[in-house]
Design a protein that fits this description.
single chain; 6 helices; 73% helix
Length: 180
Amino acid sequence: MLALGAMVVVGLVVASFSGGAQLFVVPLKLCLGLGLCALLCLPSLYVFSSVAGAGQSVRETALALAMGVALIGVLLVALAPVTWLFSQSTDDPLVMGALHVVALVVSATVGVRLVAKVMHALNGRTIAGIRGWGIMFIVVMLQMTTTLRPLVGPFDGVVPPERMFFLEHWAAPAGGDARR
């Protein structure tokens, strides 16, 4: 619940750049996106750690991941005043998108470290593969930002019809498609 509440606050800050319908849509997209990332990545966290010899249950693994996701939300809320300031003082969606991505990656990195520490505490030792899983988790989060776009900028539908890899989307010229 903490993570979802945090994502509502962060969503309102992200949407404050564009206003309008985005004030309702972006918080919903961020809650959905973070929740889906956790659900999509939970099985691989459990399997990777089990293969590495960890003995925690699926429930304990889910709780470790929930703690990491909640920390991501709290850190993003802590960074919200900074991102809000920029959203009110610039009109460049690329700058705002980059700022939000940096905040997300920094927060996610700290959240993944917490997951690794909880897994260590549950098993009494460092679990090999958690860092690799963490990279995958962050890549899934970045892809989710592309899947649920637009988060920054005017509302143009809940989910765009074209499919793109996040790096391809980021490399696209403003208002264009990188595949042209």
